[in-house]
UniProtKB/TrEMBL annotation, chain A:
Protein species of origin: Paracoccus tibetensis
Annotated InterPro entries: ACP-like_sf, PP-bd_ACP, Ppantetheine_attach_site
SUPFAM superfamilies: ACP-like (SSF47336)
Residue runs in coiled coils: none
Protein name as annotated: Acyl carrier protein
Domain called Carrier: residue spans: 3-83
Domain of life: Bacteria
UniProtKB/TrEMBL annotation, chain B:
Protein role: Proposed to synthesize NOD factor fatty acyl chain. Involved in the synthesis of a highly unsaturated fatty acid moiety, which forms part of a lipo-oligosaccharide that is responsible for host specificity.
BP terms from Gene Ontology: fatty acid biosynthetic process
Transmembrane parts of this sequence: none
Descriptive protein name: Nodulation protein E
PROSITE patterns: KS3_1, KS3_2
Compartments (UniProt record): Cell inner membrane
Ranges of compositional bias, category Basic and acidic residues: 1-10
Length: 88, 446
């Protein structure tokens, strides 16, 4: 289940970044992947649609968001948490 | 706004300021506008003055109430109240309260007027009344209206989409189209006052009103019209309107704090502002009370990004407006900022102002009244022009309220939290829209 979520997130981000999913490593930041602020907002929307979750994110203060976008690892962890909370 | 009689603009318009290196770098040249035959202004151009003003917005239903709010630093942002608001993640806005259209319009008019048209007509009536103008006879053929709006009849779209999609109805009211069209407000203003010259609507998102007023200025200055009603309106505070903005994730959930380091986004407002732009000689001959002179206007396009602003594009509009008005940077005492309270706008705007004005940037005042009336999108420049007129006429600079923490990237005098008494002779009003479309207007005290 967790691997499945991880792969689906990678696929979504890879599509946004126009990369292959295996190029989306846990250490990569959105900037590393060439995702700008509008691309990030679009990616977050795509994740919300894919998992039917609501991601708290304000583009004006991304660092203060409860949704940690530091790198792919933190994004995956945050999505997994939101998916788990939804199922709980 | 006090209504003392004015002696008219002081002296002749000065010769154009020598173009600065920044202007030359930006490739800006003096405007090439055909003269209209030996009139009073520079290069055969007419001088343009404002002889009437009207508004309705979250701060008040007229100009005096709005200016009082500017002086007090009163905030018009509250919890939003409309159908389905509980389904929004953003639930604050600068909404017009106690709006009863039946006070101003009959049943048939209400069926035809979307809220953005209602707001426009009320503001236009106030402005025309203050100007004392009547448009019967020849003047009507030499007068027109150009207004800005981004969303037009958005409430009408929203209500009727709900009816056919959500409620499954198969029939809508016959006036849906004439009610929602973006030019509806301009057309009704032309009908209300008998303005038979140029009449149209400009849609440049958050710069719509400034583009509209700039065009009105150019038309009176060139002699294409004697009088132009201009400004703009917006009524986007409905479920669909706010839901669309939520998607961009640039809206604040708690307050609009322009230039403050802890700002976290914009807050939407609604309302209208309308002004009477009049040929100076025409206004002088009839002894009109002149509120301010419109002296310069410039527009530019970033040609870069659909949402992220460019400091260079903004700077070209600022320096262009000064050059158009024959102004030196040192002449400018106050700027009404675009100042949306987003991370992107405020630092870009401050960089543009700092670069355009050089050392003088540290001596001028710049404030964002969006902290009080919210962001009226296509109507915002019109409501903000009232703060410019107040600065020139009453010597009161409207504050940027909600300011809490200095931001090194916005290190200008943003007139934090309290209005300030100051005598200024020239002011600018900035508008920088999504799509990279910039429009800046310069006004002078008379």
């Amino acid at each position: 289940m967790t691997d499945d979520i991880r792969n689906r997130i990678r696929t979504i981000i890879a599509e946004q970044a126009m990369l292959e999913p295996d190029q989306v490593t846990d250490e990569a930041t959105p900037a590393d992947l060439g995702i700008d602020s509008l691309g990030l907002v679009e990616s977050i929307f795509a994740l919300e649609e894919e998992f039917d979750i609501s991601i708290p994110f304000n583009a004006n203060e991304p660092e203060k968001s409860e949704f940690d976008i530091s790198n792919m690892g933190t994004i995956i962890a945050a999505v997994e948490r939101l998916v788990a909370e939804k199922g709980a | 706004m006090s209504r003392k009689k004015s002696d008219g603009p002081k002296g002749a318009r000065p010769a154009p300021a020598a173009s600065s290196e920044a202007l030359a770098d930006a490739g800006i040249k003096a405007p090439q506008v055909a003269g209209t035959g030996g009139l009073t202004g520079r290069g055969g151009l007419r001088r343009v003055v404002i002889t009437g003003a009207g508004t309705i917005n979250a701060l008040g239903h007229d100009v005096p109430t709005t200016l009082a709010a500017y002086r007090e630093g009163r905030c018009g942002i509250t919890q939003l109240e409309f159908r389905d608001v509980e389904r929004l993640s953003i639930q604050i806005g600068a909404q017009v309260h106690d709006w009863t259209p039946e006070t101003y319009f009959n049943r048939q008019q209400i069926l035809l007027y979307d809220k953005f048209t209602q707001f426009t007509l009320l503001a236009a009536k106030q402005a025309v009344e203050q100007s004392g103008l009547h448009f019967e006879g020849a003047l009507g053929f030499r007068s027109g209206v150009v207004l800005g709006t981004a969303g037009g009849g958005l409430n009408t779209w929203d209500e009727n989409y709900r009816a056919v999609y959500e409620e499954g109805k198969n029939r809508v009211h016959p006036f849906v189209v004439p009610k929602l069209m973006n030019n509806a407000a301009a057309s009704h203003v032309s009908m209300e006052f008998g303005l038979r010259g140029p009449a149209f609507t400009v849609a440049t998102a958050c710069a719509s009103s400034n583009h509209a007023m700039g065009l009105a200025f150019q038309m009176v200055r060139s002699g294409a019209a004697e009088v132009m009603l201009s400004g703009g309106s917006e009524a986007m505070l409905c479920f669909g309107g706010v839901k669309a903005w939520e998607g961009l994730r640039v809206m604040s959930k708690d307050a609009c704090r322009p230039f403050s380091a802890n700002r976290n986004g914009m807050v939407q407002g609604e309302g209208a502002g309308v002004f009477v732009f009049e040929d100076y000689e025409h206004a002088r001959e009839r002894g009109a009370d002149i509120l301010a002179e419109v002296v310069g206007f410039a527009m530019s396009s970033d040609a870069q990004d659909i949402v992220m602003p460019s400091a260079q594009g903004a700077e070209r509009a600022i320096t262009g407006a000064m050059l158009d008005g024959g102004l030196n940077p040192e002449d400018v005492g106050y700027i009404n900022a675009h100042g949306t309270g987003t991370a992107a706008n405020d630092k870009t705007e401050c960089a543009a102002v700092a670069h355009a004005f050089g050392h003088h940037a540290d001596r001028l005042m710049i404030s964002s009244t969006k902290s009080m009336h919210g962001h009226l999108i296509g109507g915002t420049g019109a409501v903000e022009l009232l703060a410019c007129i107040m600065a020139l006429r009453d010597g009161v600079i409207a504050p940027t309220i909600g300011y809490q923490e200095p931001d090194p990237e916005c290190a200008l005098d943003v007139v934090p939290n309290e209005a300030r008494d100051a005598k200024v002779d020239v002011v600018l009003s900035n508008a920088f829209a999504f799509g990279g479309l910039n429009a800046v207007i310069a006004l002078r005290r008379v």
